[in-house]
Write a structure and sequence with these properties.
Layout lengths: L10 E5 L5 H8 L2 H5 L11 H12 L3 E10 L8 E12 L9 E8 L8 H16 L4 E7 L3 H9 L3 E12 L2 E11 H8 L9
Helix pairs in contact: 1-3
Length: about 200
């Protein structure tokens, strides 16, 4: 299937729907998944929390569910069923659009990590942000204990811009909090010959 504005090689990106509340709740109640995204104090959450998260993600510049395209043996080439494996978001302060800078967040189910899906989803998101949304800069924050994510972001072209030393308390010790950024011209230099992931 050809890549489109809402798809990459193995993934399809769709709007977040009320039916996603169960998956969001699963993510929020799985400590490793949750704590790689939000460094707040772990505590039990209600299903209302998942609904509030869905509304928050849907209200951002771009909030999509990441789904894995799975070929069904009984279907033809155009009919595919998908399984939701995560969510990604680009968020921008409503009063700061003139800066053309957005922050990215991503969360994948633990069973889908380490398979290249995060890299593929972020490459798609970067292309959407720079080509379609005309962003000048995309930034991301990563916690010190999530070293795998930091390596991934740097491999994708993000540059470390700052560090809050020992700013986070996690699992009995202090950790740094890293800020990384990617400018459009840096993205063009790195991916200019490999584009587009997105086609129309």
């Amino acid at each position: 299937m050809q890549n489109t504005v809402w798809a990459s090689e193995r993934l399809v990106f769709r709007a977040i729907e009320p039916g996603d509340d169960a998956i969001l709740y699963k993510f929020k109640t799985d400590p490793p998944t949750h704590l790689n995204v939000l460094a707040n104090i772990p505590a039990p959450v209600s299903k209302k929390t998942a609904a509030a998260l869905r509304e928050y993600l849907s209200s951002q510049m771009l909030g999509v569910a990441i789904t894995l395209r799975q070929k069904d043996d009984d279907d033809d080439d155009d009919d595919n069923k998908v399984t939701t494996i995560g969510f990604t978001v680009l968020r921008m302060d409503n009063k700061e659009h003139h800066h053309r800078c957005a922050a990215v967040g991503i969360s994948l189910g633990k069973e889908y990590q380490g398979k290249g899906y995060g890299s593929e989803a972020l490459r798609w998101l970067l292309e959407w942000g720079f080509l379609y949304a005309n962003l000048h800069r995309i930034e991301i924050t990563v916690y010190g204990w999530n070293s795998g994510a930091r390596r991934l972001y740097e491999k994708l072209g993000f540059v470390q811009e700052g560090v809050r030393r020992k700013a986070l308390w996690f699992n009995g010790q202090w950790w740094d909090d890293f800020s990384l950024g990617l400018l459009k011209e840096e993205w063009e230099e790195k991916y200019g010959s490999a584009r587009p992931l997105i086609t129309t």
